[in-house]
Design goal:
Chain A is an alpha/beta fold and 173 residues long. Chain A is 31% helix and 12% strand. Chain A has a single domain, classed as Rossmann fold (3-Layer(aba) Sandwich), CATH 3.40.50.12280. The chains are: A alpha/beta (173), B alpha/beta (159).
Chain lengths: 173, 159
């Protein structure tokens, strides 16, 4: 661990100075949690709710969240909508193109487990967790913008509890 | 605009034994035709000066369990009249002539029915993989008794 283990765990203001000492882990976690740029990606009615949440009435910007049209610049992916077997390899590729650390919120019933299309469907993937790892499952058909914001707050909490030692492990991605 | 009776009279005069009027609902003029004459039939209703039906809204496939019904919905932009044309093909390995040689817009509808119901359209220019996943190998999925690797049947409720 080297120098990192010698840094104080909690933030500490040095008297008379403008320097704040804290742990690198905490700084990085705060930075990550406060600017989750999400991928502009939606396949069904959930995408409408996602757009609504991103627009001025619900205003995702106050979480530091803003959509990016390229997976290379995105940290977070809302799987907003029904994923068909034809779409599944494309979703997987988009996820793989995102830079680490990357997070996934399965938004709506379809992305969680196939939802209303679970039975009698030849085309719909039964849960996006079959192809990519999911951090937060958000039920609803489609979920309200408030629910989506709650899911993002849950994800922020999760990010704030991440340990530096786990970053390089195979736990994600 | 030709009324329902006139349209059916013209068609029955032209194809006496292969065309038959059927009753669907009062606002819909509908005929059942022999699948063998399908290309000649659409050529006729497209070019006849009193019909001029060249706008194909849709083609449906219906699995009737004994056979597959192919249903054509066609109308005339000039005269504002509509016609529903029903025809039957075999359920497995069914074949019917393409009408995309007469009406270009039929191309994709026929391709979709070929993929989802397994009906072959003889003479179609490009009958290849269309809407299903690229590596699909489970046969036409819209047949009523179809089942696949990841297919889950709805359980009987209350049974």
């Amino acid at each position: 661990m080297g120098i990192i283990s010698r840094v104080p765990v909690i933030a500490e203001k040095i008297p008379g100075g403008a320097i704040v000492a804290t742990s690198l882990e905490k700084v990085l976690n705060i930075s990550r949690a406060s600017s989750m740029w999400y991928l502009l990606f939606g396949t069904a009615c959930c995408a409408i709710e996602m757009m609504c949440t991103g627009a001025s009435r619900y205003d995702f910007d106050r979480f530091g969240m803003f959509f990016r049209a390229s997976p290379r610049q995105a940290d977070l992916m809302f799987v907003a909508g029904t994923i068909t077997y034809k779409m599944a390899p494309r979703v997987k590729r988009l996820y793989e193109q995102m830079a680490e650390p990357r997070y996934v919120i399965a938004m709506g019933g379809c992305a969680c487990n196939g939802g209303p299309f679970y039975y009698d469907s030849y085309a719909v993937l039964k849960g996006v967790d079959l192809i990519i790892p999911v951090d937060v499952y958000l039920p609803g058909c489609p979920p309200r913008p408030e629910s989506l914001m709650e899911a993002c707050i849950k994800l922020q909490e999760k990010i704030m509890h991440e340990k530096l030692q786990e970053w390089s492990s195979d736990k994600r991605g | 605009m030709a009324d329902s009776g006139t349209i059916i009279r013209l068609l029955v005069e032209k194809f006496p034994s292969q065309v038959e009027a059927i009753e669907l609902n009062p606002k819909q003029t509908a005929v059942q035709i022999d699948p063998k004459i399908v290309a000649a039939f659409f050529e006729f209703i497209k070019t006849h000066p009193d019909l001029k039906m060249a706008y194909l809204s849709s083609i449906s496939g219906v699995d009737m369990t004994t056979n597959i019904d192919i249903v054509y919905f066609i109308s005339s932009i000039e005269y504002k009249h509509k016609l529903t044309v029903r025809t039957k093909v075999d359920r497995l390995g069914g074949k019917i002539d393409t009408i995309s040689t007469v009406i270009k817009g039929a191309d994709w509808f026929e391709r979709e029915i070929w993929e989802l119901f397994g009906v072959e359209f003889v003479g179609h220019p490009n009958l290849t993989q269309f809407l299903l996943p690229d590596d699909w190998d489970e046969g036409p999925p819209m047949l009523r008794d179809w089942t696949g690797r990841n297919f889950v049947k709805m359980p009987e409720i209350g049974g």
